[in-house]
Amino acid sequence: MSPVSKFGATHSLRRLPVQERSAARVRRMLDAAADLIEEVGYDRLSTTAIAQRADVAIGSVYQFFGDKRSLAEALSQRYIDLYFERLAARFDAEPPADWRGGVEAAIDEYVQMYRTAPGFRVLHLADAIDPGRADAVTTGGDVIADQILAGLAQRFGIGGDDELNKTVTVAVETGQALVRLAFRRDPEGCSASIAEAADVVCDYLGRRLP
């Protein structure tokens, strides 16, 4: 794992921590933000509360993050990194026989992130924190789609083109929306809705993948 992936995307950090002591402070701030987002939501999140929960000076927050949005973006990127680390470990331990098995595993790991990662279900990978911002960053769905395309090429020999890129992006956004619906229906995730999410995404991809 690269140093950046431990803390979030470079665009979200004012500076990268060099010393381990600084790195530990950044990790505490991200952990604190995750817990607070889970407890009070993004709108009520504040840099003051993050500093207090992380037991750091408020100046330390602004040393690395411009505002609470940049901190949430870094947290979302950390979640994306963790998601793909978990998915890669699962594929290495038990390689899927085909892309359908890969899709089912990808949705299952996404569901597990909802269940275990504080703040994950609230953030939705930063794709709706401030959609009206003119310089909005790439959404979590876009990043996930890019990495899935790379995985399709590496593991199943399915090459990428513009049409495939659009197809995978639609599949990712659809899967994310259906998983969100499953957790609105049941805080632990409605099992029938999760199964339906896998069926819908696989059916859609099955009509378009070679």
UniProtKB/TrEMBL annotation:
DNA-binding region: 46-65
MF terms (GO), sorted A to Z: DNA-binding transcription factor activity; transcription cis-regulatory region binding
Coiled coil: none
InterPro entries: DNA-bd_HTH_TetR-type_CS, Homeodomain-like_sf, HTH-type_TetR-like_transc_reg, HTH_TetR, TetR_C_22
Positions of transmembrane segments: none
SUPFAM superfamilies on file: Homeodomain-like (SSF46689)
Name of this chain's protein: TetR family transcriptional regulator
Organism: Glycomyces algeriensis
Taxonomic lineage from the root: Bacteria, Bacillati, Actinomycetota, Actinomycetes, Glycomycetales
